Amino acid sequence: THFYANSFKLISLVIVFAVIACSLSAFGFARLKFPLKKLWFSILIMTLMLPGQVVIVPQYILYNRFGWVNSYLPFWIPHLLAAGNGSAFFIYLMVQFIRGIPSELDESAKIDGCNWFNIYLKIIMPLCRSALVSVVIFAFLWNWDDFFGHLLYVNSLGKFTVGLALRMFVDSESAAPWGQLLAMSLVSILPATILFFSAQKQFVEGISTGALKG
Predict the structure, then answer these.
(1) Which of 108, 132, 206, 147 is nearest to 3 (CA)?
(2) Model pTM?
(3) How do residues 154-204 score in pLDDT, each as one tens digit?
């Protein structure tokens, strides 16, 4: 339960930050006009092709200088800035979804006195529920299963997540307690399984709609 609490503490804020930051960025790319908009969006898409292994060393050096190692900040802050694991894909997915929403709704809202933030919050976001559910599911699964990232930045036992706790069962110098290990492995996949099947309809709808509109 302690490791479960750590995992949910880490992932809950990751999901909140990812949804807020990526939806705001996607709304800006899909609806607002600003200089070099196509260039910045192209650079964003190019980051999807960049292997994660390329940035591991510079990221670790940067976070270590900030004093973020052995904390959850290396996971929270990048997602707060729409630069975390999978953020580029989330933004791309939501941009395609928002572009499929008629712009006439924006004009009607402006006539009623809404500013851009109210249009984002009260009109666009309620219509993007399926895409938001897809972002939540992806963010949960990718960060729940991010064993290497947790291993790299979390060092103290009190902050271990479920994946790191599973690793403690394996000891090369002694026999592994396979019964406990397999039982805990089964329990560790339950949250992701329950989340996926409970939101499966919205997930499939969000992905398929985003693909068609892209």
Answers:
(1) 147
(2) 0.86
(3) 999 999 999 898 888 776 666 777 888 888 888 888 988 888 888 777 766
